[in-house]
Inverse folding.
């Protein structure tokens, strides 16, 4: 299997895995959780929330606009994988696969339901973080990886340039 094939497999496999895990977890939570349920005490609990906005609840009640933006972002992710993911370190393909899977998982909710199902509620007492889901987690991890790659990737991940040996007469 060629290096490019392995990168596409990583990219597509991670994206598909995230979409499946995201959709199955949302379906299970919606079917089985009717009130906030502690998982790790009050630190992590399951609570179904219908998010009609974007990440962290921003841009409330704009699911159709966010769905259109998601389609554009999905196209850009695939294009970037095609241009850079196949030439750079495999970690870039992994990060882009996570990003794509998260974007598609939340897009499916917006198209099907008109909102995104969030269900992981973390915090201490009344100080809570924004409720999120598997797709949001994948997007967050991908962003951290992409920032790391952009900051230190060239020094750590790329092979140093080795000029071809000059031919001798």
């Amino acid at each position: 299997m060629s290096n490019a094939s392995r990168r596409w497999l990583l990219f597509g496999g991670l994206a598909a895995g995230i979409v499946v895990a995201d959709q199955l977890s949302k379906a299970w939570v919606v079917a089985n959780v009717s009130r906030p349920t502690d998982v790790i005490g009050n630190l992590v609990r399951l609570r179904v929330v219908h998010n009609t906005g974007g990440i962290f609840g921003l841009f409330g009640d704009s699911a159709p606009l966010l769905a259109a933006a998601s389609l554009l972002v999905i196209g850009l992710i695939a294009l970037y994988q095609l241009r850079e993911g196949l030439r750079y370190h495999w970690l870039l393909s992994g990060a882009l696969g996570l990003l794509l899977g998260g974007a598609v998982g939340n897009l499916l909710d917006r198209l099907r339901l008109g909102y995104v199902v969030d269900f992981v509620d973390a915090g201490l007492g009344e100080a809570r973080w924004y409720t999120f889901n598997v797709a949001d987690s994948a997007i967050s991890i991908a962003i951290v990886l992409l920032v790391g790659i952009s900051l230190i990737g060239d020094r750590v991940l790329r092979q140093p340039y080795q000029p071809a040996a000059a031919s001798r007469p």
